[in-house]
Design goal:
The structure is a homotetramer of 339-residue chains. Chain A has two domains: 62 residues, Alpha-Beta Plaits (2-Layer Sandwich); 259 residues, TIM Barrel, CATH 3.20.20. Helices cover 34% and strands 18% of the residues of chain A. The first copy, chain A, is built from eleven helices and 14 strands. In chain A, the strands form three sheets. An eight-stranded parallel barrel of chain A has the order 7-8-9-10-11-12-13-14, surrounded by five helices. In chain A, helix 6 packs across helix 7. The first copy, chain A, starts with a strand and ends in a 7-residue tail after the last helix. Chains in contact: A-B, A-C, A-D, B-C, B-D, C-D.
Chain lengths: 339, 339, 339, 339
């Protein structure tokens, strides 16, 4: 950390800073510039709150040098992380697609689309069982029954299961049905849930909060990793901006930025970002072109009859066309995609 | 809801819309404009997902006419809500101030500031026991012990207690110590927690999510109210924008906007919005001038030694000066503030 | 336009609305819903300000049905626009790349990179002559001399020239040197400049304002088109959001959104959006994959010695690698790119 | 400036940094931390572009220590600036209110409201003559005739005149009619216009750009000041965020932030920020409470008949009530307001 001293600070005020540092076992390295006095702080800063320095009258500003996450940082595993869930590798050369309806509505609904997803190369079946909806009067999901449906259908079609969990109280139960837990955007900084998921050891698809910076997002990953669970994939799903033409603004730059800052695999969710089916294919191709390790896409056997987010779900036919394009593109990018 | 039909839609495609409406027991009211066909939808729309219309090829856009919340809307109680917690009224003529340290650090710390807060007219003692921190390595709060400290100190000084709860599992326990539960910005759309707080019947201070629109915020309030708990005050604490000079951007306009949209009392938190003590007083006065029913302010006996967010905490002396100005201002605005 | 009437409005207040409409030669189409009275407005609304309705006490809200632009809308030319500048077609099957240094520094500098750009398939030479810099003390560009350098170098290498103009007073002069005028993000709503560029008839590369919605951007295009100049390409260059990991947030979704809303060609500028050279290649590929008609990329013979925005400029070698990938990808997407 | 060296950088790469610094006459001050090497840069950095360092492989990040503006900084005039325009002082103890219709529509319209404004203590008459509108088909203002009307009416009522200028070509003409030039939000970074206004020497009301940070805004002020014109007041008028309940989000914190960063007077425009008349009074009081030196408010003799932005204009009666409250509040805040 670097401390920029306010011009005009008295010697006594500067000493106050130095005492604070000494009190916490830190070394000060003073450097006099043309217009400002700068103090470099050396040592383990984890026990000193930046705020208790910021409040001192001589402090103009504090400049952090290190990120606040360690396990999630690129430096921790410069070669990148890839991990297996059963027979599927996340973060490897092969692109991984997760697909399925927005919400699980019935076993028939999920069954009717599963074989088609598998045939297009999807490796994960997705579907909402616990649906966080902004109105308490909207369809809230089939809950436990939804997870059971996903598991049964997935097992019949050699697919893995991923679905969102919204409470620490559901994790134990969920472990019986899920191969990968999704943490949704609204719970991206629900640290109690993150810690609980970390303790569970179940692989996690960690969505970005709607207004979470990339550094905060990696801080959320660190919560899970600090409990010993390193099987995390990060999922970019759009951020909130002033633009309303799409539901969220897909931050496509997050893909290369994450590739530089962390070793964790990166998945993109074009369906929630766009909010409209017609934008899902171009955004999916863009995500792969930008370097994503996979996609999570909403596909519904009959979007017009869907109970939630119909507008953003692809038909199985549109999904087939898209995966064919992804397969062709993977070659150019040095990746592979299942035949 | 109003449906704008895409120019060039075929009669068959328009009929598809009409069939969807009929299937859900809704009446269509067709109106032909110069350049667009418009369909007004009449009836109970709660069982028809907007998305299952949006996906139809003839639909250009859907325009909602009604808000998705009812109990939280101004129309539900046009005269406004005021409610009592013990001997304190929220939403009445008297301005209510909640004050205390950012984090509860020890009984001595809280005790040393409580009498001063009370003497300045504060009615609630606040202090973080469960601290949601963006790094897992930062101080996470004293948890249960923190709540017990707050209760003991508050009882000695005729203060009420408000503190944040971050998990549905802590509510039962919390009820023994708290007069008002805070839901923090990061849990503003943790719907499981909102429902649980709703069922508890304990009064709630509902902070706005960092990227929550005012309508979504009222949707969060609706979650609590739909469980029968109407004792809610809304707390504006700043939103995330591109500006970094303050930690968040205090949305001062939210105060008059809420006064028009809802009957619930409005509290402002200038400390978290600003992130710096020097901005707390001007923002507090601005909030009162804009029509807020109260404030929640961080005051620490010795900000320099604070374990978290030192930079944004007022000294007891600065708090005294501020409350004197608030008292003077309350007269001009037709409000009162305790002597 | 649709008028939603406030619940509880008196008959007299509703009549006030109807009179306003009649006074402006508009027809009202009244429709009574379960909870709201709705008035559809039919006729030419261009002479009635929405505001003079919004101010009436019976008006709860106004819902515009039509966009405020006409010439820029997809409906005006559903088949899409492609136009020629000399021997180059914008908006056709072939992808068009514009490349060159951020700022024109000297004839040697531009000359040393031009042949390489041409060999990689670039059709336009770009380079800043008038540099809008946020500090008055930063390098402001070579101005007129910069344009002359661009022209001379481009002519030697069979390239076209595009560069930014920042004042209506420079247009006449610029016409002698430029094949396409760039309007920069900071002047995206400088309507005087837009009108002047429209009158000039010179093709325009219209960058999106840093906080301009897509609809406002098309409104800016409409300013130019309403003067009779239809040779416009829209350039997405990133928007301002809360995320600071990249200089701006590239709104990749804008590409498919624009393809649905307008007939104008779409170009993407990954260099300004990213602000860092290492992100330019992945974002370029993403833009092409999303359906862009071309790119504008910063390439500098020696980025380390550049006078402005060195960090975001590619080396000629990196540009060669990128264009080879773009060529390969164009085939999959049904586009072409020069050998 | 401080350079953080990437971990793992070779000695050769670090030397490359040191050579760049030496080449530009700068001194390096090296400091070895526990986990990073830090280089402090001492000397006049104005000739070295940060970018030409950022591009070097050994540079992890650059941390600016100084702001890029000097004349606009608080340090330049710690005591604050107040300046006179005729008999009115901006930035003094007395609060200054500028008021008038959004757009000048006719001499009768302006005349009918001017005496009332003066009687309520307003010192400036405002009104749009050149109206930047997002659609080319909307009313664009009376232009020169509008300025003449403002001048004649103001002179009859002992008022000063302020109005927006949108092109450097109108400044010479404007000087005959205006006491203070407004630079609008859309031209906040039109640096050619800023320089021209700086050269003119006419006092300037510089509005904040809709997505301009406070530091960029002070950079815009620096453009004007660097031409020798120090008579600038800054006008906060709302920024663009995700919230759509108000037209812009009034950044009330900008008032105390500016008071800490600059010596220039601060004016607030609640009318454009809110976009609705009903929010103007609470936001005006909030602005004064937060420490603003004045307000610019839209008042129209008959808002229902206004040609532009009717919804946000106060009636003369509402303006009278508001200024009475401002007068009462000024006493508490140690300010004055004309009887």
């Amino acid at each position: 950390m670097i401390i920029v001293v306010r011009p005009g600070a008295t010697e006594e005020q500067v000493n106050e800073i130095l005492e604070q540092l000494e009190m916490h076992g830190l070394t000060a390295h003073i450097s006099e510039g043309t217009e400002r006095l700068i103090i470099g702080v050396i040592g383990d800063k984890s026990r000193l709150s930046a705020d208790s320095l910021e409040v001192l009258p001589a402090v103009e500003k504090l400049v952090p040098i290190m990120e606040s996450y360690k396990l999630a940082s690129k430096a921790f595993r410069p070669e990148g992380t890839s991990f297996d869930i059963k027979n599927v590798t996340l973060g490897g050369k092969e692109l991984v697609i997760m697909a399925g309806p927005c919400a699980v509505e019935s076993e028939e609904q999920v069954e009717s689309v599963a074989a088609k997803l598998r045939a297009c190369g999807a490796k994960f079946l997705r579907g909402g069982a616990y649906k966080p909806r902004s109105s308490p009067y909207a369809f809230q999901g089939l809950e436990k029954e939804g997870l059971q449906i996903l598991r049964r259908v997935a097992d019949r079609h050699d697919l893995l299961v991923t679905s969102e969990i919204t409470s620490e109280n559901d994790i134990e139960y969920a472990a019986d049905y899920l191969d990968m837990i999704q943490i949704g955007a609204r719970n991206a900084q629900n640290f109690r849930l993150l810690s609980a998921v970390g303790k569970s050891g179940i692989p996690v698809l960690l969505k970005r909060g709607i207004a979470e910076t990339i550094d905060e997002w990696l801080g959320s990953a660190e919560y899970i990793m600090s409990e010993g669970n390193y099987k995390i994939a990060l999922c970019e799903r759009g951020i909130r901006t002033f633009e309303t033409a799409t539901r969220s603004t897909l931050d496509i730059s997050a893909v290369p930025v994450l590739k530089g800052k962390t070793h964790l695999p990166v998945i993109v969710d074009p369906s929630h970002a766009a909010g409209k089916a017609q934008y899902v294919a171009p955004l999916s191709l863009a995500a792969i072109a930008a370097g994503a390790d996979g996609l999570i896409i909403e596909v519904h056997p009959n979007p017009k009859a869907a109970l939630s987010d119909a507008a953003q779900q692809l038909t199985p036919e549109a999904f087939k066309t898209l995966t064919d394009e992804i397969r062709a593109m993977s070659v150019i990018l040095g990746r592979t995609y299942p035949e």
